[in-house]
Write a structure and sequence with these properties.
The chain has about 180 residues and is mostly helical. The chain is about 55% helix and about 5% strand.
Length: about 180
């Protein structure tokens, strides 16, 4: 059993918190990196070491490393803390469950917007994305965002004033 210095323990706790936060924010690669470093600094059979490794198994799964997650859960099933090995068994059960097939019409494909640069000036607009039989596929149309009028056209204010005047007239006319 290795002894963990106070400095290593603080670094491990900081990495653990950073890993949890990254996982919760969908930054799976960063989560795995932080949790692996935290795990390396801790005693595997400690309560905190087991907790970190449970989070690491979850991060592995989220990052698409299911085999690593399963292998880690197999190890954690023999952890000395009852709560850790119970959680590891539950997670292992979930990881090894058969994957359900979903019909493609139930799914909506979300494009990866992370590949777009922040200053991209054109977007693609698709008028009719589904191709019907007998119809020709619609080509995507590019819209130059610098040419789009984004100024407030004051329609809302005009509408609110009109509604206010109408309500005022109705209230006034109900008294006379």
């Amino acid at each position: 059993m290795q002894n963990v210095s106070a400095e290593s323990l603080e670094i491990a706790k900081a990495r653990y918190q950073a890993g949890k936060l990254a996982l919760e924010n969908g930054q799976y690669r960063e989560a795995v990196e932080n949790l692996e470093k935290a795990s390396a600094l801790l005693t595997r059979n400690s309560r905190l070491g087991g907790e970190v490794e449970l989070w690491l198994a979850t991060a592995y799964e989220a990052a698409g490393r299911t085999e690593d997650a399963i292998a880690l859960c197999q190890q954690l099933k023999r952890h000395p803390f009852a709560e850790t090995n119970k959680q590891a068994k539950r997670l292992l059960y979930i990881l090894q469950a058969p994957k359900l097939k979903r019909p493609s019409e139930w799914m909506t494909e979300i494009p990866d917007l992370g590949k777009l640069s922040d200053n991209e000036s054109k977007i693609r607009v698709t008028v009719n994305p589904r191709k019907s039989s007998g119809q020709k596929a619609v080509e995507p149309e590019f819209v130059d965002l610098s040419q789009v009028n984004t100024r407030d056209n004051r329609f809302i204010w005009v509408a609110l004033i009109a509604i206010g005047l109408t309500i005022s007239y109705l209230v006034w006319s109900s008294f006379y």
